[in-house]
Every structure is written in C-alpha cells, then in structure tokens.
Design goal:
19% strand; five-stranded mixed β-sheet; Helix Hairpins; Heat Shock Protein 90; alpha+beta
Length: 466
C-alpha cells in the first residue's frame, strides 16, 4: 500500500463495497417484506372466502375450498375437530388432518378460547373481522412446504363457531429472495473488480503529472541547476497549482542562492581591502619600523572589526533569529545614544521625543539608530536631527539631514546589501554598504518597517507595545 494509486483503489473499493452491501441488504429486506405482505393478503382472502361460506350456512361438506396446491385450508370446530380440509392436504404443522363430522384429528387452536360470551362475541352468521397470522408447514400431495396462515373465526347459522385456516406458500418469496441474493453475491465481486480497475487507471492518469514533477525535482537536486523548472500541466486543478507553486519556489530559491553568492563575493571583496592594507602596513613595519603607520593600522583593524560584526549580525538575522520581547523606551534610547556621539562631524540635534514603548531587542534597535545616524552624517551638510513621534498604534523614529537626499529611483535599492550610491562612496569613511540593509532587516523582524519618507528623511515605524 505504498502507492497512492493502490491506496486510492483500495479505498474506493471498500467504500463501494460497503455502499453495495448496505443497498443490497435494504433491497432484500424490502423485497422480503413486500412478498410476505403479498402472501399474507392471499392467505387472508382465501380464509375470508371460506369463512363467508360458513357464515351463510353452507354445509361443511359442501364448502368450495381452494386447491390445496395454491392455498391449503383446514376448518376446525371449537373442540379442535377437523370439519373440512382442502384437497390433497394431508398434514398441518406435522399433524395429520382428515375431515370428519363426528370424530377426527384434533388440531391445536391458534389462539385460546374460553367460550364465554361478551360484548365482542360473534353472533350466528357473522365473520370475525380480526385476522391473525402465523407461519407453519403443510403437507400437500406428499410435499411439505412453508406457509403463512391466516386464521379467521366464523359462526354458522346454528351458532356453532368454526376456525378457518388458509395458507399461502412462502416458497416463491424464499426463491425470489434467494435469487436476488445469489445475483448480488455474484455481481458484487465483479463490480468491485471493475471499480478497483477504473480507480487505478483514473488515479494513474491523474497522478502522471505528479510523477513528472517528482522526476524533474530529482533531476534538479542531482544537478543543482536551479534554473530548471518542473513541467506545468494544462489543467487548472490542484496538480497544476502545485506545479506553478513549485516553480515559484524554485525561482525564489534560485534568487536566494544568487543573492547568497553575491553576498559572499561582496563580503570577500570588502574583507580583502582592509586585510591587504593591514598586511602591507605590518610588513612595512617589520622591515622598516620607523615607517609603521600605527593609526592607519588601527583604523583598518577597526574597519575590519565592524565589517565582521555586520556580517555576523546578518548571518544571525538570515538564520531567523527572533528579537527578545523586552520593553524598549525609544525616547530614552534616543537621548542616551545621541549623548554618546559627541565626536561626530556634525552634532546630532534631538527634536520631539514622544513617550512610547516598543517590544524588542534594545541592542538591535540601538544598532538601527546608530546606522541611520551614521548614514545621515555621511550625507549631511550642517545638520542632523532625530525625533520620536506617536502615530496611533505606531511609534515613529525619524532621522533627517540637510544633505541632497536620496533620488526617488534609488530609495529601495539603498536597502540592498553592499549597495552604496556614488555620492556616498565618494564620501565613504569605511562603510561597506551594510548599515541600511541591517537596519531594515531588524525593523522587519520587530514587526515594523524602514523606508525613506522624503529625500533626506528616514522613518522607522514600530508597533507600540500593548
């Protein structure tokens, strides 16, 4: 049962089998009930016709009784004597019967009789409207068969009560039910075989595109060629949507791998410059100690350290690291971080600081603020300003400078990794183009956003902690 086709065929077969068994049982019960009702009605009609003859005064030896092969009839007196019996009827329920006006075989009554007269007692010449039924056997012309008997009471003109028992053979009912049952037992396995075969073929045809998708995915895995795509069937069903979603996933994976390759290449390039510069200075210092540029070596080391820290943070963010749920007061953080930037090229002016706490990591949010201020310092002419305002359920941190601003066409590209505009590169003091990319990633993982509101205003929006 490892195959979907096998499980589908088995499941469909079981369901159809249960449905057919339930339907067949219902048909047999309805058929048997109808045939039993028909036999009961036939027995009632035969018994009533004989009872009417008795009530109208017809002598017992002159009664017109139906043929015993069709409806065996036995008429008994109150004491159980057989007063009349149908032609060829030899026994009822294993008791031999024979008509006699004086003495005869005693047949047990179908119901108890106490002989007392009451308000419901029959009068001479009447037939009881109440009919009772019972199943039994009768021997007719040497053949014993099952019958359904109708029992009716009647009184003749002299007031003598007689019991008429007329039967309807149950063999037709039994034969009909047996025939239908046998037909079902023969047809059910054949039908189940057909259902299983059709389900197998239909499922195989329906799953053929899935096998194509699986084969192509296996080939992609073996070749590591993410530019390949799985075949998309023309149908617009679930399998077609699966193929399209798979191709979209492959495209996203290809794009992610390509970004990772560019990231590694750019990181290698950015690391190569400070490492090469530092190595050169150290080699010169070894050969000529008097020429060693210690401040330059320290500067390259700091630059290398910052780049390594940025790469490590990006790696943690890419790995899905979630920020903590601590409460961070943005206004207090802005005051504290701004007060520590006394050596900046342009002093940072603090504007409005609205009260409001957000949930997250203070160190990461302080990193975002520091990156935004560093970016503003590189572009500003004479002013850098930071403020915190409240907009509904959002706390908004704005960093503004009086520089030329970011062109509208570049406002999204600057948040890509290792991207620096020409002007920023010319004024660069060692940045690798990772600050804004890190800031946006941190903002998104805190449930917020980071973007350029106008040319020189960067806006960090974070949800206020509930």
């Amino acid at each position: 049962m490892g195959s979907v086709r096998a499980r589908a065929a088995a499941g469909a077969t079981v369901v159809v089998a249960l449905a057919l068994i339930a339907a067949g049982t219902a048909v047999l019960l309805v058929l048997r009930g109808n045939l039993q009702t028909q036999a009961r009605l036939q027995a009632q009609v035969a018994a009533h016709e004989v009872a009417v003859q008795i009530a109208t005064g017809t002598p017992y030896d002159k009664l017109e009784l139906p043929d015993g092969d069709d409806h065996p009839v036995v008429v008994t007196a109150e004491d159980g004597r057989v007063l009349a019996v149908g032609e060829d009827v030899r026994a009822v329920d294993g008791k031999r019967v024979a008509a006699s006006q004086g003495k005869g075989t005693v047949v047990p009554s179908a119901e108890d009789e106490d002989g007392d007269e009451d308000e419901g007692a029959l009068k001479p010449g009447e037939v009881d409207e109440d009919v009772t039924y019972r199943d039994g056997t009768a021997e007719v012309d040497g053949t014993v068969a099952d019958y359904r008997f109708a029992v009716i009471q009647a009184k003749d003109g002299r007031g003598a009560e007689a019991t008429v028992r007329a039967g309807a053979e149950l063999a037709p009912e039994q034969d009909a039910v047996a025939s239908v049952r046998d037909a079902m037992l023969i047809g059910l396995p054949l039908l189940l075989v057909v259902v299983a075969g059709v389900t197998w073929l239909v499922t195989r045809r329906a799953l053929r595109p899935v096998e194509g998708i699986r084969g192509e995915m296996a080939a992609i895995t073996a070749s590591t060629d993410l530019s390949r795509r799985v075949p998309v069937p023309p149908s617009k069903d679930e399998i077609g949507r699966l193929a399209r979603t798979t191709n979209e996933t492959l495209a996203a994976l290809e794009s992610a791998v390509e970004r990772q390759r560019r990231f590694v290449a750019d990181a290698s390039h950015e690391l190569r410059s400070p490492i090469a510069s530092l190595r050169t200075q150290l080699e010169v210092g070894v050969a000529h100690p008097e020429l060693l540029d210690v401040p330059g070596a320290v500067e390259d080391t700091v630059r290398l350290q910052r780049l390594a820290a940025d790469l490590l943070l990006l790696a943690r963010l890419d790995a899905g690291e979630r920020p903590s749920e601590a409460r961070v007061d943005l206004a207090a953080m802005v005051r504290e971080e701004s007060s520590q930037r006394v050596a900046d090229r342009i002093p940072v002016r603090v504007g409005e600081l609205a009260a409001g706490e957000v949930a997250g990591s203070r160190s990461q949010l302080a990193r975002v603020l520091g990156n935004l201020l560093d970016n503003a310092q590189r572009h500003a002419v004479a002013s850098v300003r930071v403020a915190v305002v409240r907009e509904g359920e959002w706390a908004v941190l704005r960093v503004e400078d009086d520089g030329p601003g970011v062109p509208e066409s570049e406002r999204e590209r600057i948040f890509e990794r290792f991207v620096r505009l020409d002007d920023a590169r010319a004024r660069d003091d060692g940045g690798a183009g990772l600050g804004l990319a890190i800031a946006r990633d941190v903002a998104v993982r805190h449930g917020g956003s980071l973007g350029v509101r106008t040319g020189s205003v960067f806006e960090l929006r974070l949800p206020v902690a509930g």
